[in-house]
Amino acid sequence: MNTIVMLPTYNERENIRGIIEAVLEQDPSLEVLVVDDSSPDGTGEIVDRMASEDPRVHIIHRKERGRGTAGLRGFKWAVEKGYDYLVEMDSDFSHDPEVIKEFLKEIVDCDVVVGSRYVEGGGAEGWSPIRKLISGVANAYARALLGLKLRDCTGGFKMFRVEVLKSLDLEGYRSDRNIYDGPETLLRIARKGFRMKEIPITFRERAAGKSKITFNKILRNILNHLNLRLKVGGA
Ligand SMILES: Nc1nc2c(ncn2[C@@H]2O[C@H](COP(=O)(O)OP(=O)(O)O)[C@@H](O)[C@H]2O)c(=O)[nH]1
Ligand SMILES: [Mg+2]
Fold first, then answer.
1. 162 alpha carbon – ligand 1 mean position (Å)
2. What is the pTM of this model?
3. Rg of the Cα trace of the chain?
4. Among candidates 214, 212, 218, which has minimal Cα distance to 10?
5. Which of 123, 143, 200, 234 has the lowest CB atom count within 10 Å?
6. Distance between CA atoms of 229 and 146, rounded to whole angstroms?
7. For the chain, what are the domain ranges?
8. Ligand nearest the Cα atom of residue 34
9. Quick check: CB of 68 below 6 Å from ligand 1?
10. Domain 3-231 has CATH 3.40.50.2300
């Protein structure tokens, strides 16, 4: 059973080699797909060199920019290549690679495993009180509006059966291309009745490189969820 671990990147030169190595050592069944949006800092070239030496490392170079469409591109690639499972995670060490081992155990009797900051035992480290508040409010808003039962609807660390992704109409996504479309994926999955399970994770704020979150993206997120509710519906 093969699992692809998708790492979207934009300017992650300081993190990318380390995170790929840390992921691959978790289990021999794992491979890595980096989806890089022509990072000006040379992230893509670092991964090109790794891919030329290791058949477990893959990369897609995109000309366009956007965490939303980057993730969809990775989903489609995993479907086309016939992987069994896909893990999505950030490439800045905010998501602990060791958790992938837990995902691999949990996925045996469900379709999607969601890494959750908002269940007992989960959390976020290195965030200011204001960042915590914004994240908590954004998550509560997404949950309520989309009607999702999950405690954490806005996190980016999850494992899916690829057959679930295949069934989602990946061409018909409504989310803003510039923002993370994880909530839309969960909404589409919930509407189809797949089995989802949340396990606690601790998000750790990045030590190297810069976050791409902006005030503009937070506002777009709010509008995006409203638009999703109107165009896709509730769970
Ligand atoms: N391909 C791609 N990846 C992105 C883009 N924006 C952010 N990312 C990646 O998505 C992950 C999370 O982004 P980050 O800026 O750390 O967001 P934060 O953790 O919410 O502050 C990181 O691996 C980023 O490199 C983008 O426009 N394109
Ligand atoms: Mg980050």
1. 22
2. 0.97
3. 17
4. 212
5. 234
6. 6
7. 3-231
8. 1
9. no
10. no
